[in-house]
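TODO from last week: model Putative multicopper oxidase.
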Amino acid sequence: MGARADSAGRRPRIGRRTFLRAAGIAAVGTALPIRADAAPGPYTPPMNHEQPTVPGIPFLTYRSPPLVPFVDDLPRLPVISAPERLVAADAMHRFHRDLDPAPSFGFGGLTHHGPTIETQAGAEPVITVVNRLQRHPMGTDVDTTLHGASDLDRTHPPLVVHLHGAPNRPADDGFPTSPFRLGRAVTYRFRNPGEAAQLWYHDHSMGTTRLSIYAGLSGHYLVRDEWDTGRHDNPLGLPAGEYETPLVMCDKLFYPDGRLRYDNTPAVAAGHVTGGMAGDTMVVNGVVWPRMSVDRGAYRFRVLSASQLNDYRLSLSDGSPFWVIGSDGGLLDAPVQVRALTISPAERYDILIDFGDRRPGDRIQLINTMQISWVGQAIGATTVRWVMRFDVGSRRGRHRRIPDRLRGSAHQPQVLARIGGERVDRVRTATLNLTANPGNPSWLGVLAMNLNNLPFHTDDFEHPVQGSLECWDLVNADVTMQPHAIHLHLVQFRVVGRWDFDKVRYLADNPPPPFGTRWTPSPRDYLTSALFAPSPYETGWKDTVRCPPDQVTRILVRWPTARELGFDPDAVFAGHNGERLQGYVWHCHLTDHEDNEMMQRLRVVAR
C-alpha cells in the first residue's frame, strides 16, 4: 500500500538521502580519479568545449527590428497559491514599448507566461487546466512531418501540462502524446517534492512543445518548506518578498509589427523545423531587455531558462561576483560564489546578487557571453549579449548579508549526501546524435536528432528497476558539435562528472546503423581525460543536465519504489483521449530537438 496523505494533502516525506541509501550500497563506482580544476576565488565555468567561431552569411538569417534596450520595467509575474483552475488562453501581448501588441499565449489570465505558483513541500495540489487556446501564434511554423503534429494544431492548439521536476504519477505527468484541445478541461493531481525546490510548468504536446513554450505557455512553480518559507523571517536568512524575483528568460525573434517569429532562416522551407531557433533579442518575464530598480542590498533571483536552443553564460557587466544557492531540485549545502553561471534550456538556478556596495545611480547589466552554435553563426546569427539591467537606487535594502551555509546547521535542512564510490546496479550508456531519417522529412528533409539512434515510437526503450541505483553515461556524439540538455521525468539525480572522449575514433570504430536500430557503444575505450568534477553549482539535485559536445556526462539516478512514492510508477493509465499509456519520458530539452525525435519513453518496473 502506498504512503497515505494527511488531512492537508501532504505525504510523509521521503528524504532524498534515503533514495541513495536505500539501494543498500555505498556511492558512485569509477576507477578514474576526479579532477576538480578548482581555483581560488569566485568560480568561473570553463570555456573549453564551447562552439568554434565561424564566418557567417548575414542574409541567411532574419532579424528583429532595431529596439532600444532597458526602456521597459521588468514585470513582476504574480505569485499565487496553487489554484483550483488554471486557464490557458490566447491573448495580445506587448513585448516592447516600440512594438505593437501581438498574439501570444498565457496561463491564468496573463498575456504571456503564467503566474508563479507557490505551494508547500509534500503537498498534492489538485489543479484543473482548461484549454481555451485558439489560433496558434506560431501556426505557420507547425511542421506536420513531426510525430504528433497536424494541421489542426494551427487552429486548435493541443495542450498537456508537465510539472517539470516533480515526482508525479504517470497519469499526471503530462505524457506528450496525450494532449487535449479547445474547450476541454483536465484535472491534474500534482505531487510536490519533500523539500523546497524551484520547478516549472509548461506545455508538453508532441510535435509542438517548442512553439507553445515560445508563445508563452510556461511558468514558475516554487515549493516552500519550513526552512525556505518565502517570508522575511525564514531561518536561512534569504531575501524574500519584493527582494525575491522569478526570472523567465528566452531569446526571441520579432517581425517589424511586433509579432513573434520562429523561422529564423530562409535556408529552410517555411513550416519545417530548422533544428534550432536562435533569436537576436532577449526577453525576460515577457519584456525585451527590461530594467529593474533595486535597493542597495541583497536580492534573490529564481532564474529559469525557457530558451528553445541556446545556452547562456550569465555574468554582471562590472565583473563583480554573485552567489548560486540552489539548482533544479533545491538548495546547495552552501552558497557558491561565481563570476559567471552557465545555464542550459530548462535548467533553473537560484542566485543572490548583493547591490549593497553599489552607489545610487549605478547601472549594472546582466549579460550573456556564451558563444552560439557554429551552425547559427554560419547563417549570420550572433550571441545576444544583453539580458536586463539593474538600476541602483538610494534606499538601503532589507537583506544585507549572504548566508554562510544553507544546509547542515541548526534550523536548516540536512546536508546533501556525498557521492563518489557507490557500487551501482547498472551503468547505462545513452548516445546523443544526429542521424539520417529518410522516412520522416523533418529537419532539412531527412535528418533527426535522437537518443540511442531510435525514434520516439519504439519498443526498445529503457526499463530501470524500482529501487535500483544507476549511472547513466550520456555520450554526446553529435556530429554538429552542439551541447544538449537532458531531462529525466519523475526523478531528481546527481551529476557525477564529465570525461573528454575521442568522438572521431568512437564514430569510426562504431558507425551508427540505420536509424531505428539501438546504438549505444561503450565510450570507455575512448576516454581521453580523467573525470572532471561538475561545476560547484551542479552538485545539488538536478532533473536537467548540460551535456557538452565531445564529452561523456555521468549522472547518478536512484529509481524510487512504489512504496516510497505512494503509487505504482509503472501503472497503465488512460490518456486524455482514451488511449492506453504506460511510463514516463526522458528527452533533450532543446525543444526543437525534443520535437524532432530526441525523446524516449521509459518504464520504472518492479523487481
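Done. The chain has a mean pLDDT of 91.
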